[in-house]
Design brief:
There is one protein chain. By secondary structure, the protein is an alpha/beta fold. The chain has a single domain, classed as Metallo-beta-lactamase, Chain A (4-Layer Sandwich). Helix content is 23%, strand content 27%. A hairpin with a 2-residue loop joins strand 9 and strand 10. Helix 6 packs across helix 7. The longest helix is centred in the C-terminal third of the chain and has 12 residues. The protein is globular, with a radius of gyration of 17 Å. It starts with a strand and ends with a strand.
């Protein structure tokens, strides 16, 4: 099995001839770091797209990806309704509420109810100040056009491994299942490194892959140094392997 980070909360996971995408967001602005050269046309073989919520940095490219690949979209009912208004055919979408089990090729996956991270006042004020000069541009990507809707995590079983992906760093209840690889988001709060480390403490995986720490749409976003996240894990005494992903580079799992 191979996995590659596509930036933000996006991943491609490949097993044999089957490819699934999670939160694929490719159309970053020119100032984004790192720069993403891949586009929807580069994923003609995608078989399924799993979405955690409806914000633009998780779903913006989904309509084009479905057109290119014919992939089936798995998301909350709220997000499916929103995507239908963006041109995604209903026949290519499967709504989830949490607990449903689906299979695509060797992949078996379950939607897990989650929540969106709660932005803290300091981060909100700093971000608003930076965004004022580009308010009209950024308003087109806001929650009026891309509402988050019900938030989901995805529990994925493939090749004897158990993976768990969160697209936003908030799940106040326990997963109640064993996890080998946890894809944890590190974005959305000034204390996000501690928040993400606490999620790792509760999930107790063998391997952690941090994501969403990139500067995906400046000035709306910021780069998050993963050093404090790793230090928080050490402080908590967690014996876990941290595999920091490189954009678009395949890693073996």
């Amino acid at each position: 099995m191979q996995l590659r980070w596509l930036g933000t909360a996006g991943f491609e996971i490949i097993s044999g001839s089957t490819s699934i995408l999670i939160d694929p967001y490719l159309t970053r602005n020119p100032e984004a770091f790192p720069r993403q050269e891949l586009r929807a046309r580069d994923f003609p073989g995608a078989n399924a797209i799993l979405l955690t919520h409806g914000h633009f940095d998780h779903v913006y490219d989904v309509a084009e990806l479905v057109e290119v690949s014919g992939a089936e979209v798995h998301a909350s009912a709220d997000v499916c309704h929103m995507l239908a208004s963006k041109g995604v055919p209903w026949m290519r979408m499967r709504p989830h509420w949490g607990g449903e089990v689906d299979e695509v090729g060797p992949f078996r996956f379950t939607a897990v109810p989650a929540l969106h991270v709660v932005f803290d006042a300091r981060l909100v004020l700093n971000t608003l100040w930076k965004c004022l000069p580009r308010f009209i541009e950024l308003a087109r990507l806001g929650s009026m056009r891309y509402p988050g809707g019900q938030v989901l995590g995805w529990y994925i079983q493939v090749e004897g491994k158990r993976l768990f992906h969160l697209g936003s760093a908030n799940m106040p209840w326990n997963l109640g299942a064993e996890v080998d690889v946890f894809m944890v988001p590190v974005q959305g709060r000034t204390d996000i490194c501690e928040v993400a480390a606490e999620l790792v403490r509760r999930i107790r995986p063998r391997v952690v892959i941090p994501h969403h720490h990139d500067d995906f749409y400046p000035p709306l976003s910021r780069y998050v140094d993963l050093g404090p996240f790793k230090e928080a894990l050490r402080r908590m005494g967690l014996d876990v392997e941290v595999r920091e992903p490189e954009l678009n580079r395949l890693m073996e799992l």
